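Sequence only, no structure available. Ideas?
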Amino acid sequence: MSETAGTERAVGGTSLAWVRRRESAARFWRGYRAHRSGLYGLAALALIGLAALGAPLLVGGDVQSVTRAEGGALEPPSAAFWLGTDQFGRSLLGLLVWGARVSLAVGLLAAGLSVAIGAVVGIAAGHFGGWFATVVMRVTDWFLVMPSLVLAIVLATVMSRSMWTVVLAIGITSWPTTARLVRAQTIAVESRPYIERARALGGGHGHVMGRHVLPNVMPLVLAQTTLCISTAILTEATLAFLGLGDPTVVSWGGMLQDAREAGAVSSGHWWYLAPPGIAIALVALAFTLCGRAVESVLNPRLGAGR
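Reply:
I predicted one. Tokens follow.
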């Protein structure tokens, strides 16, 4: 009977945990819906994401081929080519849709890597403190004072030119801000009484950081991730525009770099420059709006002060 009762309590505890998670998610969504700008940003990202995922069906794979181009060089927008063509006669609309896949993928992966590094460093520094935190934060400060774009350019130049190189270059150079924020939050969490009780009951470093500190800093990490994605996309576009991206794939930054090489600026071929530039700005703005809305929901004091 005791084993049966223990099993029932475990199952009941698991069900209660899921109920609480669903209620927390529902409260978060109700709070998020109150931010109209966040909904606009989310809708824009949903449309762009669906277009990127459906690129093979919407525009086909042949649009990236130079030898199978159907239009003339640098044709202006028309009924056949809504956004015009590039110097090879390829549809800029098709290239824009395919470029969304690479730009969004690089932005998400780079932001995830950056926030993961920053969260690990911040939690470790805030938890252990002492000389360890001093050394770690001095390294963090060094990365903060160094221009992240310059460091990313150096890494992208030294390493092989590929999408993963760009992801590593952005992720490795943009984590310090997250680390400092997470460290401050970790110090605040560890000053609470239940952390002392957990330690008194024999909880080790891994237990305290994984079971108590991490869940409390996750809202901050989530908000920081949404804000970092827009920065990562802009950095990827900058690296690609400088010719440091993967030349075998189509990205929005690469389209701008191709337009520059084709002389679109001096020739007045605005349709070659405007679509990728506007797309980069829209995606960055959409992620920023979503990030601000998430931040306001997770930290109500920010919303009250605005």
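Residues 92-128 form the longest helix (37 residues).
Hope that gets you unstuck.
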